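Title: Prediction job returns without error message
Component: structure pipeline
Severity: low
Priority: P3
Assignee: unassigned

Description:
Job completed but the reporter wants confirmation the result is attached to the right record. Sequence as submitted:
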Amino acid sequence: MKNRLTSQQKITFCQLLGDLLTNGFSLQQALYFLQTTDTFPVELVQLVQKNLHSGQSLSKSFAQLNFSADQVLQVALGEMHGGIALTLKGIAKQMLLVQKQRQNFIKAISYPALLLLFLLLILLGMRTLLLPQLLESGMIAVDNPSILFIQAAPWFVIGVLLIGMLLLILWNYWGKKQSYLIKYSFLAKLPLIGRLHRDYYSAYFALEWGKLFDQGLELQQIIACLLATEKESLMKELAASLQQQLVQGQSLAHQLKAYPFLTKEFGQIVQQGEVRGNLGKELLVYSQLVWQRFFARLEFLCSWLQPLVFLLVALLIVSIYVAMLLPLSSGLEGIW
């Protein structure tokens, strides 16, 4: 049995399950309804039902269904604070927005990527077929800059791709040996990606902590809830780190300012909320604002990505024409 749902099935599963729970269905009744709809693989719904019958948590089933670590943690916290229906619908909404941005990204990059591949094939064809004939005819000098460009360009593109693949392999190798705190602190310091990274996790933490504070839980209770979750995650490691520093007498707001993967204003929001006694609601409002900012920035980057890639393609096309025509014109001038 393949314990996987497609991205669209995950969105539908969370949305339907959240809607059914909101409308008064018990968890078992909701799962039985989902089983009869034939929308999802029956064996996967039965797996969730079996886990619940054996006393396992819903978050455990979400981990088996290949939901992300962050989503599994959200479900676990939702079970703890009693807002599982709202949590599931929130996950569905976030996944839908991410899916939309992913589709926009693919649309923006697919056509330029095909053009780049086509240009690479042209350069390889010129290098292997056209250049040898021109060099043998004596019309073009071997050390001509345009000739050197045509010879080097394909290797340059291939080299960039290989370096990119090597960096990904090194990142995966290094990341497996590091804690979540170290990995995500490093990502938050990278240009361009770092800002999106900080917005995403600030909104995510504000949402989950806001719900817990709004339920009336104290900070130590929230930390205990996070440490009790089964799967390792950034939030769990952060809770352990906060617990150690709270014992030393440091305030929560002061500690949060030291983590690079959180925005600078996150600690200020916490400090203001603690003073006013309304921390839960302020974090929930802040979460909505940062989510809006995150997706606005993501959409802005996608909107600029295609023009930039097209500009790069245009420059390559011009370079290829120049590389072909200049040597030929120089050769013709020599003949005349």
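Comment from assignee: result matches the submitted record. The chain has a mean pLDDT of 83.
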